[in-house]
Amino acid sequence: MTAALLTLADSRLPAGGHAHSGGVEQAIAMGVLTDAGSLTTFLRRRLATSGAVAAGLAAAACGGGDLAALDAEADARTPSPALRAASRQQGRGLVRVGRRAWPSAAWDELPALPHHAIALGVAAAAGGLGPRDAAQAAAYLSVSGPATAAQRLLAMDPLTVAAITARLAPEVDDVATRAVADGLPAATDPLLDLLAEVHATRKDRIFAS
Amino acid sequence: MRTDVEIVARRGPGGRTVLPVLRATGQLAVRRTGATTVHLVATAFGPLGGDDATIRIVVEEGATLGVLSVAAAIALPARGATTPSVQRIEADVEGSLDLRLEPTVVAAGAHHRAELVAGLGPHGQLTVTDQVLLGRAGEEPGRWTGTTRIERGGRPLLHTTVGLGTGEPAWLPPVAPRAYVSTVHIAETVHIAEEEVGVATGQDAVRLPLPGGWVTTAWGAELHRVVRAAAALAPAAPVRVPA
Predict the structure, then answer these.
(1) CATH number for region A31-200
(2) B206 vs A193: CB contact, 8 Å cut-off?
(3) Partner residue opposite B159 with nearest CB, options A73, A189, A193
(4) Which of A38, A77, A197 sits opposite B199 (nearest CB)?
(5) B chain contacts of residue A49, beta-carbon cutoff 8 Å
(6) How sure is the predictor about A12, in pLDDT bands with cuts at 50, 70 and 90?
(7) pTM (predicted TM-score)
(8) Separation of alpha carbons B114 and B164, rounded Å
(9) B226-229: long-range pairs with CB below 8 Å, 24+
């Protein structure tokens, strides 16, 4: 592992991820997420579905896959317009900082407004990392950002939330391993689609997604 | 046990649908039941764990075909085995295919995998519905894993895997439904604006746009209510094709 992986997964990397709650804001509004126990459950289902898909896409993009074809595969796995927009917004943010941080010709091969996972794969490759690293960053980011969002919105104890995220580490590793070994997953959670679409219509929201 | 079904629908004289290939072996029989419909008929109890069914459907350009089934399928565990039962549908659609099988009920201890891979040609139209109920009355839920991949001209339009029941990593209380319904509709044109259909949401139900169509998904405790919730989100009018 190199420090590039730590940088990619660092929430202080100004790629815009802090503006997204990954469905947490709406899950709280709908009463699905209320405390530490239900946060753990929510993160698990996110990791197993959108996290696994992002890990697979990031690994494939890092490993030299056809980026336009992978972007189309990402669209097919993300029918929710709100989730697509959130992914492409974060992809754009990552391209902006990634180009400066790890200059590489690979950035020019990305389609305009790429999905976040595709941009993450390219960033990993540009930073000298491999597909497994890209998958790991994608899987980790699928839970770390939402965990922080829940901490803010529910005014949770930061130590509790840090412990929840840390205890998911074996599952994050497992998702990353399988994303590399088994090809592109397509796991989806209709609940996350519903949360994202209801959230997108709200005028009083704090997070972008 | 291996089950193979093969159906080819062709546009015949005067626009009638003819079925030059209509055969089945194993646990399913296939019967023509109308001008454009066939029914799958279970000839054995099950499927049981380890059973493997492949249904190949070709709908040629200009042909219309509806594939229905006579009764719900009850997926049961095989004695002493944990292998899932598998149903794979491969559809090649240049015409119009309406695939509406009766619900799959997955008994306690059983794991059923349903896969649909559909390739649409430039004029292909597809409507497909999955209805799932985990567990019979008074029984623990079984497990269902459903994968849908739809392409048009090699471009993926939808590719999702939904996992329901004990052992599926994203099936976790408080949202761990026993009943699930999903309908995908893809109309003839790929040029339809996604805004024409748009998003709609209900309680435990959501409709999302697809290129040329939509997908509705609903979930809950009771299948009949979930069927109604999904139907309520289907656009009232057929997808309009802009001039």
Answers:
(1) 1.10.4190
(2) yes
(3) A73
(4) A197
(5) 170
(6) confident
(7) 0.95
(8) 12
(9) B226/B177, B226/B179, B226/B180, B226/B181, B227/B131, B227/B181, B229/B181, B229/B202, B229/B203, B229/B204, B229/B205
Contact, A97 vs A14, CB < 8 A?
yes
C-alpha closest to that of A87 among A42, A117, A131: A117
CA atoms within 13 A on the CB side of B101: 19
Bridge partners of B125? B96
Two structure tokens written together for B59? 């709908």
Are B168 and B143 within 8 A, CB to CB?
Answer: yes
Residue B238: strand, helix, or coil? coil
Structure tokens at B62: 């200009």
Structural domain boundaries in chain A: 31-200
Q: Give, for B224, the enclosing helix (H) or strand (E).
A: helix B223-233
DSSP A111-172: PSS--HHHHHHHHHHHTT--HHHHHHHHHHHHHHHHHHHHHHHTT--HHHHHHHHHHTHHHH
Polymer length of chain A: 209
Identify the contact set of chain B against chain A, taking CB-CB distances under 8 A.
147, 149, 155-163, 169-170, 172-175, 182, 194, 199, 201, 204-206, 208-210, 215, 217, 219
**Tokens matching residue A48:** 């197993």
pLDDT digits (tens, 9 = 90+) for A89-103: 999 999 999 999 999
Task: Answer whether B123's CB lies under 8 Å from B149's CB.
Answer: no
Strands of B94-242 (E only): list them: 96-100, 104-106, 111-120, 125-134, 143-152, 155-164, 179-186, 200-202, 205-210, 213-220
> What is the rounded CA–CA span in Å between residue A11 and residue B185?
40
Judge whether A46 and A39 are in contact, CB under 8 Å: no
A residues 114-173 lying closer than 8 A (beta carbon) to B = none
Give the tens place of pLDDT for each residue, A51-94.
999 999 999 999 999 999 999 999 999 999 999 999 999 999 99
